[in-house]
Amino acid sequence: MTILHISDTHGQHTKLANLPAADVIVHSGDFTFGGSEQEAIEFMQWFCDLPYKHKAFIAGNHDMCMYGADKIEGLPENVHYLCNSSVVIDGVKFYGLPMFMEDVMDGTYDKLISAIPDDTDVLVTHQPPYGILDGGEYHGKQDFHYGDYKLYAKVLDVRPKLHLFGHDHNVYGFEEHFGTVFSNAAVVDSHYVLKKETPLTYNI
């Protein structure tokens, strides 16, 4: 199975060109910029029309209009919105954990991290795990980490084959640690300008 990973398109999805072939395309959140319902609808229309056999996406912290929408009616059978939920595609279990600031602030997010299933093959989150593809500048502060400690510990415990995320616009690429390939596919930089990077694909 070939998986194409994109993230943090922030309303600029239609500018993505020459996306490579894959069996599954995964978007790990922040498909909107302002979090409006109209932005989300436009993204989903584009995403549903992409020529991939299977498609999966989660919400990021910018996608506020998705808060409380655990399921989306009317999506094609091959398009999966993962909201603290999973889907098995050709024997591979994908699990998606969105990032909503309401959940982060009231402690729900930590509980949702703890609930990630142990048999997850491909984990899709918006936030990185602490210390992996999560470092950059934040309002003048250097060496700022966007990642989460509890998420790092959970991934270390679950050991998925792939952990797909974004959120940190300063880092793009992949690393492998303790048998898991970690991928940050944020396609815009810190100024929300599309980066000219090679699309990230993985075979599992």
UniProtKB/TrEMBL annotation:
Domain of life: Bacteria
Residues annotated as domain Calcineurin-like phosphoesterase: 1-170
A Pfam short name: Metallophos
Coiled-coil regions listed in the entry: none
A molecular function GO annotation: hydrolase activity
InterPro entries: Calcineurin-like_PHP, Metallo-depent_PP-like, UPF0046_metallophosphoest
Name of the protein in question: Serine/threonine protein phosphatase
